[in-house]
Amino acid sequence: MQETVRKLRSITNDATLSPAQKARYLSLEAENMLPYPALDAETQKALDERVICDMYEGHAPYKPRYVLPDYSVLMRNGSEYLELPVPESLDEAINTLMIAYHHVPSVTGMPVYIGQLDELLLPFCEGVSDDTLYEKIRLFWRYLDRTLPDAFMHANIGPTDNRVARTILRVDAELRQIAPNLTLLYDSQLSGDDLLAMAGRNIAECCKPHIANHAVHADAFDERGYGIVSCYNVLPVAGGASTLTRVNLKEVARRSGGEREFFEHTLPYFLELNFRLTQARIDYLFDESGFFDSFLVKEGWIDRQRFTAMYGVFAMAEAVNELQDKAGREGRYGFDEEANALGHRISEALAEAVRTRPLDKVWRGHALLHSQAGLSDDVEATPGVRIPYGTEPDPVTHVQALAPHHQYYDAGISEILTVDEGVTNNPEALVQLCKGAFASGFREFTVNVASNDLVRVTGYMVRLSDIRKFNDQQGSRTNTTVLGAEAAEVTGILDRKPRVVGNELSPGYRQ
Amino acid sequence: MNSPRATVSKILTYSIVDGPGNRLVIFLQGCNFDCTACHNPHTIGECNHCGDCVPACHADALSLVDGRIVFNPLTCDQCDDCLAACPIDANPMVRDYSVADILELARKHLPFLTGITVSGGEPTKQLKFVVALFEAIKLDDELAGLDCFIDSNGYLGATGWESLLPFTDGVMLDIKSFDDDLHRELAGKGHGKSLQSARLLHEAGKLYELRFLLVPGVTDSDEELDGLIDFVRTLGGEVRVKLNAFQHHGVRPEALAWEKMSREGVERAAERLREAGISNVATPAVYL
Question: Does B285 sit within 8 Å of A432, measured CB to CB?
């Protein structure tokens, strides 16, 4: 108890946190004083040893991890609960969305999905001049960054080339804000080279947007569609993900005697334990929390049938190298064909296991595999299936080494390619790299331009200048700076070049 | 007929600084200039198989067999000690490539490539190979979409350009100085042929970029910049001018006596060019 009080006190008295940030950390501490959903002893042990991991989502899941409302329902019907009429002008449409966002929960307490914005706003743009549209989007963007300052908040545009998408790209490059995060859905049949070229120039300017391979994603989901949220998580619209759990492949490999034992026993064993962990958390959310009595369900923004379970894996690089060591082979992950092929076989086995293990109260009856991009306190465990920081080969070799993984990860996979700032003189190169990556099977194209102040730490963006300020104890307006600062300190990601780590959720207040 | 082969110093399948987009870059060994400021001087000379590099190689990747240097890329760990040991600025690690070899490489990386650039050394020294390579690309159904660029010092004569231009999309041409004596001092040869090449390429619509290296106190004087401005004016029409900044990375010891070119210095020069009506001036994104 002494310890708990001391910790709560250190949060309330931390001068670097805003009152809202303190309230959030206090609520996390409170939730975690509750007992955890019941687990069997083996699952509990694996969780305690962090071979499997619940992303520190909290002991009592009372909201899904990610909620992707179908905002078109709101645009069509208005909201009785929120007393909002059907919007009729662009101003009303934007205002309706601005209100809606504050009622969409997620694991961070901020909305992670703010909609397919061009599709939502285009119907209101008839008769609106380009200058007016630009001004309204600019103010909307400023509002988002200042009131919902979390880089996991994600807007989607595309795949068609349209006025709203172009205006958003223009504003995003001009303002260079951390929030919102932005993904362009690109489809070579629908988007056109001009829109992709514009995205390339934006990336050179501010490392945004990400570009998603629309044809591949659309194929993996249904007619109601998908959204890209948070850090490259691909989820059903009008639903989302109840939970995200993950398996530390390095720890699994360490517990196996060699490749054969790994595939036949160790991996299936821990995968099963993580399925059990997943089911226990979902059961609590559906059966005990009362979440699905929300107006979000009643008014049709979301459908309880459309929540998947994200099944994450990480530390593929370390797992492969561990198995290579055990087999007496020198080749390293990312550089050696044999090591890479072993990694691809692991991904194939994971996908098969996830597809065939039934889960209850989950969209399509099974989880979706996800290459999980790390937490800010992961040490010596590379995010997802990525190549360890600081050792990455050039972007083309990088893509070629990892492309065969991408077919297996329906719920999202991302590699962050580091390109030197010379590319600011030659953004066509980014477009070409993107086309090459998609032709090779990449689901997602994300670039960090070295020496840019706005830099990606896993899926979210931080400003290097903010991290410096935060470390100087001045506090930060944006939540993700805290994560970035922690990731930078723990993993040394900024030592060599702008890079990736960390994740989504801070595991709580750090001491 | 024998298909021409090339002596290649290095190949990059990813380059964002050798023309538009991402490019496959073939660095051909050997140069007809000998520039003090050269940033990859080991591409200048051509190996005479003296053997001085063999003892410098700690990885046993180099040997002398029947009077010729043999290089084993499998044991090489790219320490580059052999380059330092070479008395004639050559490179014992050069490899021999056929046109078919390069086409295969281009095919493998095709989705990632905007085009192909031959650089050097001075690539037009291996003219027959470059012509054969570019022609083969343009005639290949799968590869014809790749644009073909040359990074050149312009020493090639008109006849040579005539054989190349039907298959060439653009040339990046470097002028070391607009003062003939200074050019001779900096590069070992005068600038007449280079200027002539620039005119010829511009008329043919193939001068993608005119490059000029700014070295503090050497080529950044008002006279030099005015020479550049006058030359661009005589070319007429729009010319893209790329100002490069002299850096210390990779240069020979005698060039270290010069200062590095600062961003401010480059911006000053760019401003002078823009004020003189040259609208398309590119400057480096990175200063080392």
Answer: no
pLDDT at A455: 54
Give chain B positions within 8 Å (CB) of A437.
Answer: 112
Q: Are A312 and A245 spatial neighbours (Cβ–Cβ below 8 Å)? A: yes
Residues B148 and B62 in one domain: no
In a domain, B288, yes or no: no
* Domain edge (last residue) among B93, B127, B153: B93
Whether residue B114 and residue A394 make contact (CB cut-off 8 A), yes or no, is: no
Q: What is the largest CA-CA distance in chain A?
A: 69
Token pair, residue B277, equals 């009506």
- What are the residues facing B171 on neighbouring strands? B150, B207
Taking an 8 Å cut-off on Cβ atoms, the answer to whether A429 and B16 are in contact is yes
Domain ranges of chain A: 2-33
How far is Cα A393 from Cα A335, in angstroms, rounded to an integer? 8
3-state DSSP assignment of residue A35: coil
Helices (H), A357-404: 395-402
**Both B253 and B140 in a single domain?**
yes
> What confidence tier does A464 reach under pLDDT thresholds 50, 70, 90?
low
Of the listed ranges A123-132, A401-410, A449-458, the one predicted with least confidence: A449-458
Do B198 and B269 lie in a common domain?
Answer: yes
For residue A13, give the DSSP letter.
T
Please report where in the chains the tokens 């550049």 appear, as a residue: B228
The whole domain housing B76 covers 48-93
Closest by Cα among B170, B118, B116 to B143: B116
Read out DSSP for A121-172?
A: HGGG-TT--HHHHHHHHHHHHHHHHHHS--TT-EEEE-SS--HHHHHHHHHH
Model pTM score = 0.87
Mean pLDDT value across residues A324-342 = 95
Contact B286 A394 (CB under 8 A): no
- Tell me, what's the pLDDT at A461? 54
Provide the domain count of chain B. Answer: 2
- A316 interfaces chain B, CB cutoff of 8 Å: no
ipTM of this predicted complex? 0.87
- Tell me which residue has tokens 């083969």: B136
Q: Parallel, antiparallel, or unpaired for β A444-449 and A210-213?
A: antiparallel
CB within 8 Å: A425 and B285: yes
Residues in chain A: 511
Q: How does pLDDT run across A342-365, given as a tens digit for each residue?
A: 999 999 999 999 999 999 999 999
B144/B272 same-domain check:
yes
Closest chain A C-alpha to B47 CA, distance in angstroms: 29
User: Tokens 């890079």 sit at which residue?
Assistant: A499
Find out whether B44 and B134 touch, Cβ atoms under 8 Å: no
- Residue A420: helix, strand or coil by DSSP? coil
Chain B residues whose beta carbon lies within 8 Å of the beta carbon of residue A428:
20-22, 114
Q: Which amino acid is at A329?
A: R
Whether A175 has its CB under 8 Å from any CB of chain B: the answer is no
End-to-end CA distance of chain B: 47
Count other Cβ atoms within 10 Å, centred on residue A49. 12
Please tell me whether residue A367 adopts helix, strand or coil conformation. Answer: coil
Residues B37 and B59 reside in one and the same domain: no
CA B271 to each of CA A346, B215, B275, B276, B280: distance values in angstroms, whole numbers, following the listed order = 56, 17, 6, 9, 11
Taking the C-alpha atoms of residue A279 and residue A256, their distance in angstroms, rounded to an integer, is: 25
> 3-class secondary structure for A458-479?
CCEEEEHHHHHHHHCCCCCCCH
